[in-house]
Amino acid sequence: MTQIAAVIVAAGRGTRAGGPVPKQWHPLGARASGAHLRVIDHAIAAFRPHVARIVVVHHPDDLELAQTLDDVTLVSGGLTRAASVRAGLETLDGHGIDRVLIHDAARALVPASVIRAVQDALISHKAAAPALPVTDALWRGGPAQDDSTDATPSTAYVHGTQDRSGLYRAQTPQGFAFDAILAAHRGFDGDAADDVEVARVAGLKVCITKGSEENFKITHPEDFARAETLLRLRQAEATAPQGQENTLMDIRLGNGYDVHRFGTGDHVWLCGVKIPHGRSLQGHSDADVGMHALTDAIYGALARGDIGQHFPPSDPQWKGAESHIFLRHAIGLAREMGYELMNCDVTLVCEQPKVGPHATSMRAALAEIMGVDVEKVSVKATTSERLGFTGREEGIAALATAALIRP
């Protein structure tokens, strides 16, 4: 029988998250008894059903905290992440482990589906890891490269763009055939960003599996609020009687509608995707009509007005602004109010350009901006049968609906 173990890395200091203790020991949620759980408790619980043994690699200064954990093997970490992982792997050597999952404790809410996908991939591969494709535009930036008068030493400036094709955001758990990753770490010198880097140096091919937006890494203070909201949603879903799920939740619905006319140009922005076209949409910002409609739908669900109230077109700082700024603000406001997106649906009304070939990319772009799973995002298109301003190809209209939930 295949023996699978998990190595949960919890030896970092996590200073960016703030608080009196490293983030992995920070309270997060509570037991039914009222006792507080911590970030690391959730990470450990996520792996209990999937592995035979769990090793926790802790910082030497955190031994007293680590000793409060039940039914795990404790190992003191090293000076680097790579050294800490190797310490955990060495502890498992000689115990009949066939495969190992290496996970960051700060990814406390990793879904079971992500863990299972890595395990399934290890049946036919020696290495597998979850990831999400990069959908945002990428910039290279830094200090000003000239002596212009508007340059300030503390400000970063855009120096260029970076092609995002084939780029992924790495997640954990990263899974391996045990003997292969142990040998890779024993032969590795220095530190590495993650264990995929160590594996690739050793010549292992790493299979990419599907990640999840819920598998985010708690890094900054605001991430704890996001994690608490997700925990409440999961608890409500788990405890609601069948057929009565909605009785435990505050559900908000919002609608959005936007129109932009065509003008001169060679592309349009639709739902976060740049599409070559003979004309461009005109507007105070980048005129992403689909994203504007969705943003207004979220504001509407919250009863917090519309884009114009939060980002007045009379304010010159928003001239030519990228619309993801507005959408991030709307979803951020929703989370501040305790809501998460249940799902959203955007309909683009136009004769041209054709939306179908780009719909998948649009869904991914919107999901990335909002920090949700792509399965919660729908983008589709229709024509107006050559009727009206959209039928005459004078512009594009968009309608959007957003559903928000709060336990």
Report mean pLDDT, rounded to a whole number.
90
Distance linking N and C termini: 41 Å
From the alpha carbons, calculate the radius of gyration and give it in angstroms: 24 Å
Helix count, per DSSP? 12
> Total number of β-strand segments?
19
Short note summarizing the structure:
With 407 residues, the chain is of the alpha/beta class. The chain has two domains: 206 residues, Spore Coat Polysaccharide Biosynthesis Protein SpsA, Chain A, CATH 3.90.550.10; 158 residues, 2-Layer Sandwich (60s Ribosomal Protein L30, Chain: A), CATH 3.30.1330.
Describe the structure.
Residues 251-404 form the 2-C-methyl-D-erythritol 2,4-cyclodiphosphate synthase domain. Residues 252-407 are annotated as: 2-C-methyl-D-erythritol 2,4-cyclodiphosphate synthase. The protein has 407 residues and is α/β, with parallel strands linked by helices. It has two domains: 4-135 and 164-237, Spore Coat Polysaccharide Biosynthesis Protein SpsA, Chain A (Alpha-Beta Complex); 249-406, 2-C-methyl-D-erythritol 2,4-cyclodiphosphate synthase (60s Ribosomal Protein L30, Chain: A, 2-Layer Sandwich). It has twelve helices and 19 strands. The chain has helices spanning 39-47, 63-66, 81-92, 112-121, 178-186, 195-201, 221-239, 289-302, 307-310, 324-336, 359-370, 388-391; strands at 4-10, 27-30, 36-38, 53-58, 73-76, 99-104, 127-133, 138-142, 157-162, 168-170, 174-177, 207-210, 250-264, 267-270, 273-276, 279-281, 340-349, 377-382, 395-406. The strands form five sheets. Strands 1, 4, 5, 6, 7, 10, 11 and 12 form an eight-stranded mixed β-sheet that branches. Strands 16-13-19-17-18 form a five-stranded mixed β-sheet. The two termini are 41 Å apart. The model has no long low-confidence stretch (mean pLDDT 90).
